[in-house]
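TA notes, week 10

Several of you asked for a full example with nothing omitted. So below is the full record: C-alpha cells for the whole chain, then the designed sequence directly under it. When grading your own attempts, check the secondary structure regions first.
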C-alpha cells in the first residue's frame, strides 16, 4: 500500500509503465524516496465468469520492470 504522500512525491511524467508493471514502478520510486511500503493481504476467489487478463507478456513486462529499475539505479540514472 502506498500512502497519498508517497504517491504525490512521484513525478508522474517520468513514469513509463502501465498495467501490472505500474504498481512495481510506483512502489520502487516511493521506496527510493524513503517511504515505507506495506503489504495488505487480500484473498482472491476463483473467477466465476469471464477470462483472466494475465498472460506471458504481462508477466515478463512486470519481471523486466524490477530488473530495469534496479539497473538504472545502479547506473546512477533516475528511473
Amino acid at each position: 500500500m502506498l500512502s497519498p504522500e508517497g504517491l504525490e512525491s512521484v513525478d508522474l511524467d517520468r513514469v513509463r509503465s502501465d498495467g501490472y508493471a505500474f504498481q512495481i514502478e510506483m512502489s520502487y520510486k516511493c521506496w527510493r524516496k524513503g517511504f515505507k511500503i506495506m503489504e495488505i493481504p487480500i484473498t482472491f476467489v476463483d473467477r466465476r465468469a469471464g477470462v483472466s487478463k494475465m498472460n506471458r507478456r504481462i508477466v515478463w513486462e512486470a519481471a523486466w520492470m524490477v530488473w530495469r529499475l534496479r539497473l538504472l539505479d545502479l547506473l546512477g540514472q533516475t528511473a
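The chain has a mean pLDDT of 86. Use that as a sanity check on your answer.
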